[in-house]
């Protein structure tokens, strides 16, 4: 059985392919909630604990990896300077000029690239693109894709090179 206490996937824990898909679906939901929460944090400036509490009260978390949601939300905030420093060379705009939704998606994806090496870089890029399609501007997903395609080799050089062989 997959424990809710850990974010690590152990193949021995999976009873079936559906169990693995269930975990990915719950993580996808966690990313969606975290993107919305990060947007709110950026726009309204409320404390993370307030935002997290509000999201847990106002939303059904039965299909959300709540631990991962919390890690993403607090991880992005805690590592914001490192994340923005990593992102900046891959941007044609300043951080301040970015659309707030795309900024939330890029910060979340950059956090995963930096701190969650258990999540393959291609998954991070794909999830970022999907988030931008759902929440971003019309062509926001193209922008997010371009930035993450530049960023991944900088942050996951060995993994990206190994994949291209």
From TrEMBL:
<feature type="region of interest" description="Disordered">
    <location>
        <begin position="1"/>
        <end position="27"/>
    </location>
</feature>
<keyword id="KW-0694">RNA-binding</keyword>
<dbReference type="Pfam" id="PF01029">
    <property type="entry name" value="NusB"/>
</dbReference>
<dbReference type="GO" id="GO:0003723">
    <property type="term" value="F:RNA binding"/>
</dbReference>
<dbReference type="InterPro" id="IPR006027">
    <property type="entry name" value="NusB_RsmB_TIM44"/>
</dbReference>
<keyword id="KW-0889">Transcription antitermination</keyword>
<protein>
    <recommendedName>
        <fullName>Transcription antitermination protein NusB</fullName>
    </recommendedName>
</protein>
<keyword id="KW-0804">Transcription</keyword>
<dbReference type="GO" id="GO:0031564">
    <property type="term" value="P:transcription antitermination"/>
</dbReference>
<feature type="compositionally biased region" description="Basic and acidic residues">
    <location>
        <begin position="10"/>
        <end position="21"/>
    </location>
</feature>
<dbReference type="GO" id="GO:0006353">
    <property type="term" value="P:DNA-templated transcription termination"/>
</dbReference>
<comment type="similarity">
    <text>Belongs to the NusB family.</text>
</comment>
<feature type="domain" description="NusB/RsmB/TIM44">
    <location>
        <begin position="28"/>
        <end position="152"/>
    </location>
</feature>
<dbReference type="InterPro" id="IPR035926">
    <property type="entry name" value="NusB-like_sf"/>
</dbReference>
<dbReference type="GO" id="GO:0005829">
    <property type="term" value="C:cytosol"/>
</dbReference>
<keyword id="KW-0805">Transcription regulation</keyword>
<dbReference type="InterPro" id="IPR011605">
    <property type="entry name" value="NusB_fam"/>
</dbReference>
<comment type="function">
    <text>Involved in transcription antitermination. Required for transcription of ribosomal RNA (rRNA) genes. Binds specifically to the boxA antiterminator sequence of the ribosomal RNA (rrn) operons.</text>
</comment>
